[in-house]
Design brief:
By secondary structure, this protein is α/β, with parallel strands linked by helices. It has helices at about 10, 20-25, 55-70, 90-110, 110-115, 135-140, 145-155, 175-210, 225-230, 270-275, 285-290, 295-305; strands at about 5, 30-35, 40-50, 75-80, 120, 130-135, 165-170, 245, 250.
Length: about 325
């Protein structure tokens, strides 16, 4: 680590720079140089009495890395500090250094870069800088960080005594405003449908889902067939496997034309095709006494309790 400032090219004598960059850095001094214990970062603290564009600083970093440490896995960072004359005020400094601030913000955060780029900059009083930016959620979320970065640049780097404050204006409608509004509405609708589906699923846990895996949200539940997963427009969006309504079963529809709660199968047992009193399923004894009964009362019971497909609970 260096404790006394030395001319830049005395610290880096073998560094070759061309054009105006060499002349600019020739008038600077290096206050200190430090490296991490892992030797993966080299920090150069630069002092200048003139403003240096950020692009020149980045060019110097790249030159030091490529010429002096071509094979080392390390990052070179130059931390510049300016000692400017009294002629610099917040207003003329912002005018002279604005492009460098924009370039730095663009590398740091696109939201802060865009907020500063489109900001209306005013100076309400001596030593105060006011940015008026669009009133958006993103800008509000980055307000404190934008102020911190700007004050760090203006005060710590440039030695200016100034404070930064942020005000808001109504955001202008962009060319994609309608598309953004449509996307937002679609997301709201999607969240609403998910919430509705979760509510219907919760009711289904209380025994109100229909045989065959159908559910009240129009999607087939676990074990449901593809017909039940698609649902049907004429049945109110319920899957073909039927859906719960109250404590009884709502018969599903086969291609939208009648049917029953067993996937719209017309050959289901009559006891299961007929509407039943609310609150109970037909007793197995009732099923077994009717024509076209299931193969056995036990098989039908197991099919209903396991959510099996309609083909397993009916006579071929």
């Amino acid at each position: 680590m260096m404790t006394k400032a030395k001319p830049f090219f005395e610290v880096f004598p073998s560094l070759e720079l061309k054009g105006t960059l060499h002349d600019k850095l020739e008038q600077t001094a290096v206050e200190r140089v430090s490296a991490t214990k892992q030797k993966d970062r080299l920090s150069v603290y630069l002092f200048s009495t003139r403003l240096l564009p950020k692009e020149d600083i980045w060019a110097a970093e790249k030159a030091i890395k490529s010429q002096l440490f071509p094979h080392a896995f390390l990052t070179v960072r130059i931390f510049e500090r300016f000692e400017l004359s009294a002629q610099y005020t917040p207003e003329n400094l912002m005018e002279a250094y604005r492009e460098s601030i924009l370039a730095e913000l663009k590398e740091y955060s696109h939201v802060e870069y865009n907020a500063f780029r489109t900001a209306q900059i005013t100076y309400p009083e001596s030593g105060r800088i006011r940015l008026t930016i669009d009133d958006t959620v993103l800008n509000h979320s980055k307000e404190s960080e934008l102020i911190r970065v700007l004050e760090k640049i203006l005060v710590e780097r440039c030695g200016l005594t100034a404070g930064v404050e942020v005000g808001y204006r109504e955001a202008e409608s962009g060319r994609f405003a309608e598309d953004d509004e449509l996307r937002l509405q679609m997301k709201v609708n999607e969240i609403f449908l998910r919430a509705k589906a979760c509510g219907a699923y919760g009711e289904g846990q209380s025994g109100q889902t229909a045989p065959g895996g159908g559910s009240a949200n129009g999607r087939g539940g676990p074990g449901g067939d593809r017909r039940g997963a698609k649902g049907d427009a004429k049945s109110g969006g319920f899957p073909a496997g039927g859906a719960a309504k109250g404590n009884g079963f709502v018969p599903g529809e086969r291609n939208g034309d009648g049917g029953n709660g067993f996937g719209g199968r017309a050959d289901a047992p009559e006891a299961l095709r007929e509407p039943r009193p609310r609150g109970r399923l037909p007793h197995m004894a009732e099923v077994s006494d009717r024509p076209g009964r299931a193969r056995s009362a036990g098989a039908a019971s197991r099919a209903i309790s396991s959510g099996a497909s309609s083909a397993e609970a009916t006579v071929p």
